[in-house]
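Same chain as my last thread, 384 residues:
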Amino acid sequence: MPIDNLLTQINLDQFDLAPSQVWGNIRLVPVIKENYNEDLRLGLKKYDAEETYVYDAKTVYCSYIPHGMIARWSSDNKPVVPYGCELSKRGKSPDSHYSRVQIEHRMVKKENSRQVRFLPLHLAMEGFLSLCFGGPNIAWSEYSKSVLKSGLGSRSEKTVAGIQIRDLEDALRVFEVHDKQVGVIIFVADSPASIFLVPHPADYRLMHASLIEDFYGELIFYNGLSLYNVPELDLGIENLKVNSLDDLETLSLLARKNHQHQHDDLLRDMILPKIESRQTNRLGKFSLQRFMTDLDNNTPNFIGEALLRVDGSIEYMKTYQLSRAQAKRGFLLKSLAKNDWDLEQTALSLACHKNELILRLNNAGFGYFIKPDILAAALKASQH
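reply #2:
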């Protein structure tokens, strides 16, 4: 499968950012696309189950998943009909049934030659959870039998549903959807929570309300608990006088410029970091990728997924902001893998003692990696 145009940084230059709309501590920035295409469309497939299990060749992924996303595309640039818009006989939809448990096979499943079902954002989270999942490839003496035999065994992360974030439901309800709007950037207490982009304005109108069903990071939840009300952006035009149409045009251009600068400032933690991407599937001329930042402990980190054209332009994107604890766990796993799971070498690369590394692993929830007697000795040594 050829790989081209892997995403290395989030670049929103192909889009216009409209003035933000605020409600309580939520800031929503509409994303506009003047020239959109009709050859790729996204639709939603609703799930009613309380839990969804996704079976792959060797792993099982379990989560609450409110909907899947259906991508349809054409190979000849002709418009396609999005999922859910076909004419059908009146009556109950074949998909409309209730079950406490939903079973899906694979995170991304090809349903016909030009239709794929994938599970939005769970594709990215699966990539994060499976990071270095196989465990040590050398039987180092410090590791427990279970890790040497079965790898990490299981991994889990806590997320928060959008409905739990203060003010988000009201903000989405009163939000004005623009013409040619294909996405939104969500800020909570002016901290970036998520970027959501789709190929077509009609797709966005369909999915706008579903943002409350998405999952978000714990950090975003705690930001939402603050009583901070986000301010309107300062356009810097209050003292300008308008005496002619030329003055009005000048004022409008200045307002847009100031808006853009302030949006760039708010977005710097999303658009400045370099990201590592991996292609998971080809959808004709489109590339489905998942990505994450380098998990540096000193900067904000996020994971996400995207659909790109062959020219690198973004057609779909969804991001998730990692908490410091989540990034720390990922960073430790990557550091171990980079050093062939050699604790001595990994500790050296992190400028710490081997016992300190063992304690860091234990504090991150990875104490089960280490043999009990070695972990106990490290804990005892830390008390002296």
